[in-house]
Amino acid sequence: EKWKAVTDRYMSAEALADFEAKRAELGEAFDATHAEMGAKWKDLGSRIKAALPMDPASDAAQAFLAEWKALLEPFTRVATPAMMEGSHQMYENMDKWEGQADPGFDHEVFQFIQAAGTAAK
After folding, report:
1. Closest of 9, 16, 7, 6 to residue 82, by C-alpha
2. What pLDDT sits at residue 3?
3. Among 10, 13, 23, CA closest to 78
4. Which residue among 19, 24, 78, 85 is least enclosed by CB atoms within 10 Å?
């Protein structure tokens, strides 16, 4: 219910429908309520937070980015453009909903990962 309140604000009707249609493909590996997956995101988020500040182009930052992408892979493998856009909007606005739902990392960590991704390009 916490996640629904957040996703309903940032996801289009198309994105929400796509998430529902892709639920079986996403499976437990990308279920935000699944304890094991939640623990993996929280572990990674905590390690990144503890390492900040850090140069987004550094080897350590790029290693964190690689871990992030690996955890995100079940989503990116099946996500439609609407799902990608909705997720992007939701996390870009994380500072407005932080504390209402817990993805395992905070807005500062998300911004850092975005910067590391930009530095990787």
Report:
1. 16
2. 86
3. 23
4. 24
